[in-house]
Amino acid sequence: MSAIATLAATGASLAALGWLAATDPKRRRAFRLTLAPEQPRARNAAWALALLPGALVPLASGGAGFVLWLGAVSVAGWGLAAMPPDDSLTRLRSAALEALRERLARLAARLGGHTRALRARLPAPAAKPEGDAAARIARLEARVSELEAELMARRATSRSVATVEHATRVAC
């Protein structure tokens, strides 16, 4: 039971730290992102959720569980802090959803088809943009050709103007 309590406490603390890292105004300004709306009550609750398991782990897991919790939260917290704010929460959420999907798939294999309803409730993974790649490439190549033609026309115009100016200076 102590390992489960330690893992649960670590997960709760990391989820709170991930939210704090993703919504911190100073970090968002440093990464030139839009500021998240200020939510002081949510911020206080997140700090409580991040630190409260540290007080409860020694009761459930003893000193060793506390040391494991402290080390895991410290190391993973630095990892969360190293990621840009917009990515940290998204990556954490997608990793948690992927782990949950894998767990449900294993459970479904054991139980048969009884978990279809549970899997249907999970949000679908982010879909890749659809579209014909060849058509997109053709459109981009056509646009590049248009831009090259426009650039050549502008260069020719600027050279002729420069030639006329040079001829007038020489004649004077």
Which terms summarize this structure?
mainly alpha; elongated; 6 helices; 172 residues
Quick structural overview:
The chain has about 170 residues and is an all-alpha fold.
What would you note in describing this structure?
The protein has 172 residues and is mostly helical. The chain contains 6 helices and no strands.
Task: Kindly estimate the percentage of residues that lie in beta strands according to DSSP.
Answer: under 5%
The percentage helix is: over 70%
Order of helices and strands: HHHHHH
Number of helices: 6
Mean pLDDT: 79
Q: Over all CA atoms, what is the radius of gyration?
A: 29 Å
Number of strands: 0
Distance between the termini: 97 Å
Major sheet characteristics: none
Given the C-alpha coordinates, what overall shape results?
Answer: elongated
Estimated structural class: mainly alpha
User: What low-confidence regions span 5 or more consecutive residues with pLDDT below 50?
Assistant: none
Topology:
Layout: H1 2-23, H2 25-30, H3 40-82, H4 85-111, H5 116-121, H6 133-171
